[in-house]
Amino acid sequence: GKEGVLIKGSNYLEALSQTKTVVFDKTGTLTQGVFEVSAVHHSPMAQEKLLEYAALAECASSHPISKSLQKAAGGALDRSRVTDIQEHSGRGVTAVVDGVAVAAGNGKLMEELGVAWHECHSVGTIVHIRDSHIAVNGEYAGHIVISDVEKPHSRDAIAALKAAGVTKTVMLTGDIQKVADYVARDLGVDEVRAELLPADKVERVEELLKAEPEGAKLAFVGDGINDAPVLSRADIGIAMGAMGSDAAIEAADVVLMDDDPMKIAKAIKISRKCIRIVHENIVFSLGVKLLCLL
Ligand code: ADP
Ligand code: MG
To answer: Is 84 labeled as catalytic in the residue annotation?
Structure first.
C-alpha cells in the first residue's frame, strides 16, 4: 500500500512477524550498485583503451558492474565490434572485441582462464582484464578499481531490525573479502561471507536455515542479480523492486517498491500488528459467542 511494500500472501505476513534472521546480498541491496571507476592499475594499455575494451566486453550484461563500466567508457559503444559474449555468473564476462579475446572479471575468472593476475592494495571492487593481444605481462592487461557506496538508510535499517527483535543479520556477497568486511563493519552486520558464487549463497542460506530455532523464520533480501535462487530458498524472499531484476520480483514473496532497506523492519512491525489484530478479532468473536451462549 502507501508504505511501498508488496506482500504476496497472508502466509508471508505471518512468516514476517516471526523473522529472527535477516540475510542480505551486498551489491544493489545494502549498496547502491552504481560503481564509479576510481583507478586503473598495472596496465600497459592507455586507461581509456582498457576501459573501452572492458565496456565493450560488458556491453550485453545487466550486472551493475557492467552498467557502470559502460557508463564510465562514455559515448555509444559499437556493439558490432563484439562477438562471442559469455557471462560467467558471479565471476564476470568473456567476449571477443575487435577479434581479440577479452575477459573482465574477478580473480576466480582469471584463474579459470589461466591468467596471472595481480592483487590490488586499494579497497574496492576489482575488475581484472585479460586481453589476448597484450604481449607484456602474459595476457594480463591490468585491473580497474571500482567503488560502490552504501545506501543512505542501510545502517539505520540494520539497527531498526535489531530493535524489532531480529537476532542475527548476515551479509553474503560474491565480492572480495576486503570490501565485504569494510561494508559489514560499517553497517553493523553481525556475520559476513565473501567471495561466494551463486550456488555457495544457497548452501550458506541452507546452513543458516538449519540453525534456526523452531518457529523462527529467515528472510533473504536481494536484487535478483546472481541471487535469485536464494530468494526462493529462504522462508521469506524480499526483492528490491525498483533496481532489481524481473526474475527477483517473480521469485520474491515480498517486494520493496523503492529499494529502501529501512522498509524491512517496517514490514516486520506491520506484520506483527496485523497478526495481533487477527488474533484479537478471533478472541473477540469467540467471546461474543460465549456471551450469547450464556
Ligand atoms: P554480490 O554478491 O555482491 O551481489 P555478484 O554475485 O553479482 O555480487 O558478483 C560477484 C563478483 O563477481 C563481483 O564482485 C565481481 O567481482 C564479479 N562479477 C560478476 N559479474 C561481473 C561482471 N559482469 N563484470 C565484472 N565482474 C563481475
Ligand atoms: Mg547481487
So the answer is: no
**pLDDT mean over 67-85:** 93
**Minimum-distance ligand to the CA of 148?**
1
Closest CA relative to residue 22, chosen from 180, 212, 175: 212
Residue carrying the nine cell digits 534456526: 212
Which candidate, 46, 67, 90, places its Cα nearest to that of 193?
90
When the pLDDT of each residue in the chain is averaged and rounded to a whole number, the result is 93
The bound ligand whose nearest atom lies closest to the alpha carbon of 244 is 2
Query: Mean of the pLDDT values across residues 20-44?
Result: 95
Cell representation of residue 257 = 517498491
Ligand 2 center–CA 174 separation, angstroms: 8
| Predicted TM-score of the model (pTM) | 0.93
Is the CB of 173 inside a 6 Å radius of any atom of ligand 1?
yes
Residues whose CB is under 5 A from ligand 2 (ion)? 25, 27, 225-226
Query: Please, are residues 13 and 275 in contact by the beta-carbon 8 Å criterion?
Result: yes
Residue found under cell 573479502 = 177
Q: Say how many C-beta atoms besides its own lie within 10 A of residue 272's C-beta.
A: 18
Q: How confident is the model at residue 192 (pLDDT cuts 50, 70, 90)?
A: very high
Structural contact between residues 16 and 5, judged by C-beta atoms closer than 8 angstroms: no
- Whole-number Å distance between alpha carbons of 249 and 244: 7
Q: How confident is the model at residue 29 (pLDDT cuts 50, 70, 90)?
A: very high
